User: Which sequence fits this backbone?
């Protein structure tokens, strides 16, 4: 097998300067040029940029978005105000109510509890003697029956975009006797027609 000479006395011509140098002092650059070690130039780091992946967009542990259940909106004390005598329009002042024009909502009285069955709680069946939550009746006011205001079918809400803190509805059957009279009692609320259990 043949071998290469050491080049102890040999001379080489630099590819960069064209000058003659001892062969043993020559080196090869990254681009293949054969140059003297005094002329050696390392490869610029900018010629080999580090690869960077794209920005992370997707999350590792994700869940689909869920639709928040509708909740009750508490109203101030005696929240219902008749518009005028002989009118069935009821105005409600509720800052930040967030209700949408044309949607149907139900009015409820204050939250109450009634006694349970009297039996101790059974974790296997879920039956309990704990009190049962419910709603009291809305009080009558200005010729309007509270039972009509809290009807189970609810009412279509009308919002006025220039009056963001107010909305109104037209009560069924009744009309105001005097007008501009507030009533309904304390602890009333407005919310979805049917409440989901939690």
Assistant:
């Amino acid at each position: 097998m043949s071998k290469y000479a050491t080049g102890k006395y040999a001379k080489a011509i630099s590819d960069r300067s064209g000058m003659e140098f001892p062969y043993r002092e020559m080196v090869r650059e990254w681009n293949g040029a054969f140059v003297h070690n005094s002329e050696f130039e390392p490869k610029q780091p900018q010629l080999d940029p580090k690869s960077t992946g794209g920005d992370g967009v997707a999350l590792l542990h994700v869940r689909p978005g869920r639709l928040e259940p509708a909740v009750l909106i508490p109203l101030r004390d005696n929240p219902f105000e008749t518009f005028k005598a002989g009118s069935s329009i009821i105005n409600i002042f509720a800052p930040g109510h967030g209700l949408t024009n044309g949607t149907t909502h139900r009015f409820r009285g204050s939250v109450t509890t009634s006694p349970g069955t009297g039996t101790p709680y059974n974790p296997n069946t879920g039956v309990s003697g704990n009190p049962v939550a419910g709603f009291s009746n809305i009080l009558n006011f200005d010729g309007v029956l509270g039972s009509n205001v809290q009807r189970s079918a609810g009412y279509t809400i009308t919002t006025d975009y220039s009056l963001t803190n107010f909305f109104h509805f037209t009560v069924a059957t009744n009309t105001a006797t005097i007008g501009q009279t507030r009533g309904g009692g304390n602890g009333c609320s407005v919310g979805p027609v049917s409440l989901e259990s939690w």
